TrEMBL record, chain A:
SUPFAM superfamilies per the UniProt record, alphabetical: Thiamin diphosphate-binding fold (THDP-binding)
Recorded superkingdom: Bacteria
Keyword Oxidoreductase: yes
Family annotation (Pfam families): TPP_enzyme_C (PF02775)
Protein name from the UniProt record: 2-oxoacid:ferredoxin oxidoreductase subunit beta
Assigned keywords, A-Z: Oxidoreductase
Residue ranges occupied by any Thiamine pyrophosphate enzyme TPP-binding domain in the UniProt entry: 77-224
UniProtKB/TrEMBL annotation, chain B:
Name used for this protein in its record: Ferredoxin
Function: Ferredoxins are iron-sulfur proteins that transfer electrons in a wide variety of metabolic reactions.
Domain of life: Bacteria
Pfam families, alphabetized: Fer4 (PF00037)
Amino acid sequence: MNTDSTSTVALGLPTLRGTDGVPTLAEHELLTGKDFTSDQEVRWCPGCGDYAVLKAVQGFLPELNIRRENVVFISGIGCSSRFPYYLDTYGMHSIHGRAPSIATGLATAREDLHVFVVTGDGDALSIGGNHLIHALRRNVNMTILLFNNRIYGLTKGQYSPTSETGKVTKTSPMGSLDHPFNPVSLALGAEATFVARTIDSDRKHLTSVLTAAAAHRGTSLVEIYQNCPIFNDGAFDAIKSPDTKADAIIPLVHGEPITFGPRNPDTGLGDKALIRTTTGAIEVVPVADIATEAILIHDAHNPDPSTAFAISRLTDAGYLHQSPIGIFRQVERPTYDDEARAQVRTAQGDNPTDAKARLQALINGNDTWTV
Amino acid sequence: MTYVIAQPCVDVKDKACVDECPVDCIYEGKRMLYIHPDECVDCGACEPVCPTEAIFYEDDVPEEQTRYTAINAEFFSELGAPGGAARSDFAGQDHPDITALPEGLNA
């Protein structure tokens, strides 16, 4: 192998899929949500969206058909990060913002573990902003659940990296000056291979998105809109209320035309649709004004993230009146941990001498100079 | 585990809890409200807002009302998991034990 400092080597295409490498349950073994429920008393505020996510996760984990001892939940700091206590799996309530880094190490060292990260908008996007984007670009095998309540709840209500501009909080008495992050746009910009968004109170959608995310090999980022009933109540009312949600949620389903608003019972289409304009941008237009063929078909498997990014920009940056929900992007790319393990195997296989001799040879290497 | 609506709700049906429930799992029957045990996420938002103190965590239902845990669950045994009270209408129905209760119980 040429190890010249400027050379690159072809790493090949991924051969592993989904949760390959994680032992599955024996044929007669069957787990239920109860098996994944710990004996700890759940302590979030009454009405918190975290309860709904916890229940959905406890409900979907048995479907993965893997052992509890091969599941790990790593969290950072924040309300959402209490999550590992309530699951009867391995877990770690770790350092603020650093859960993706710890998960990177664990996923690389232990191929037999299914690694989840639980984080919030403050933990993932402010304190741990760098750790998140680098996990995403490396495509480490992990499923990231990003609970977005658009506020710092644990510290009692300060504006967060996803709070809307002008938001009045304890730390922004005259309104926040910060322009908010859109977590989906950020993840797509970092070229994450799986990016999705769902809602805490929609158990069916949440479960289906989590199932797809867990089955994805590589980093999956799932943004979960989560209501904080104490410090940011009603942040997602427009997309939750039965009266307004049809016009607020733009549902993304791979292979289907993207429409929203009240459905026409004959065509199954909403009254508004996304189209691509002549400049390449995405626009919302009334379905009645355009030909059905002009409606944008959602392609989550497109290797180019630009259309997914354009769709993600339809999310309101201010109060949320409109937001695309579903899987934005789901593509295959080699994962960091698979490649790292393969390199270690190759390096060890090429050299018949023992580890100590190899280390000494490295130290004695010819790339030295005198100062 | 789940929250349970018990006897003080019968013929009262204040419905403050319905507005409070983040997952819309409280269904209106003819004489009382029922919590769907599989859809309830145990968040506890409903319990403090009930003016008649009819809502209890499953473990804390008073001994003389423990039957209500089964009554809430059995109400849905044929209705299944509708996935949200807003799109359901069971207001004409009740669990047979509730139908059999005398009038003016909580008057």
